[in-house]
Amino acid sequence: MAKKTKKNTISVEDKLKALHKLQVIDTEVDKIRIVRGELPLEIEDLEDLIAGLDTRLEKFNSELEIINENILTNKNSVVLATEAIEKYEKQLKNIKNNREFTSLTKEVEFQNLEIQIAEKNRSQNEANLLHKTEIINACSEQISDKQEELKLKQSELEAIIKETEKEEAALMKESTKAEKVIDERLLNAYKRIRSKVANGLAVVSVERDACGGCFSQIPPQRQLDIQMHKKVIVCEHCGRVMIDANIFQEQEA
């Protein structure tokens, strides 16, 4: 009850100053978290990309093995066909009739055709082998580059965490301290506004007769009310709490 009474005795101007101080602190915390918040996402994207490239590389290597197997098969086909031709040609020297001659001649022609087909397939497979090897080398190089980039990002994140964790903890402590000066209703309104606006600015100053948040024009009478620091005034368009720029100078003084 005593704390509540103390808050109620604080003037609106002091509440506005405390609210501004809270906004400044929370903005600094936001900046730290934004810098740190982007890096984990970048690291996650890189990890996903590398995993995808690894899968592709594995697929390419499997295809390369098949191509090598096909080339070996082509070579074996040529060897087998050549051996068959030699056998048939020996048999041709000992033929007994035209029927055997015709049959053996056709076998030789067939085996020669098999050799042509095998040689053509081997030539195509060797071209595929060269192309696939180039793709694998490019993919491996890309993986290496991305892994190096990932290491740099991870090191950068570790450095930022190490550098900012104490600063963030100190700011959060100051934020909690500033919140104690502001009554619960106003504090809840502040947090609600912060959660709804993209830049997290729930408290803004009047700039060139306009709201510093959404830049909507403010009527002269409303500007006068803001300058008086007698009540909390929110923008009719964006809902942000508006403060006269002079209050910042007073706070800094």
Description:
The chain has 253 residues and is mainly α. It contains 6 helices and 4 strands. Strands 2-1-4-3 form a 4-stranded mixed beta sheet. β3 and β4 form a beta hairpin. α2 (12-92) runs antiparallel to α3 (98-179). The model is unreliable at 1-5 (pLDDT under 50).
Give the topology, please.
Blueprint: H1 2-9, H2 12-92, H3 98-179, H4 184-196, E1 203-207, E2 210-211, H5 220-228, E3 233-234, E4 241-243, H6 246-252
Parallel strand pairs: 1-4
Antiparallel strand pairs: 1-2, 3-4
Helix pairs in contact: 2-3
What's this, in brief?
The protein is mainly alpha-helical and 253 residues long.
Morphology: rod-shaped
Oligomeric nature of the chains:
single chain
Could you estimate the helical fraction of the residues in percent? over 70%
Low confidence ranges: 1-5
Distance between the termini: 32 Å
Estimate the mean pLDDT confidence.
Answer: 88
Q: What is the strand arrangement across the widest sheet?
A: 2-1-4-3
Strand fraction equals under 5%
What is the ordering of alpha helices and beta strands?
A: HHHHEEHEEH
Summed up, the helix count is 6
The biggest sheet amounts to: 4 strands, mixed
The total of beta strands comes to 4
Instruction: Output the structural class.
Output: mainly alpha
Rg result: 40 Å
